[in-house]
Amino acid sequence: MTSREGRAKEIQRAIGEVLLRNWDPLGVKDEPQAQDEYDAYVGGVYHLIASGATAKQIAEHLVRIETDRLGYPDTDPKMLIPLANKLLRLKVRLESGGSAA
Fold it and tell me: Does the pTM exceed 0.90?
């Protein structure tokens, strides 16, 4: 695995952790069997971050997942801006040599 691939995998793991611990619309973060529940959404979030998306765009993406895939009523994207900012800071921290933890 190249260092670039390793970095991408590290970022994806970190995104998945943030989604599980800080987003968790299904409330499964404490269920051992459901620790991979949001893995299907990591790629989309990763792509947005890598493409230079804004916090608002990431928040809107998560709202679409909640409504279209999880069946929840519309969440105000403004409520997810702090989470989106956390995701954006995570990428910067990983690029500067920090860890995901």
Answer: no
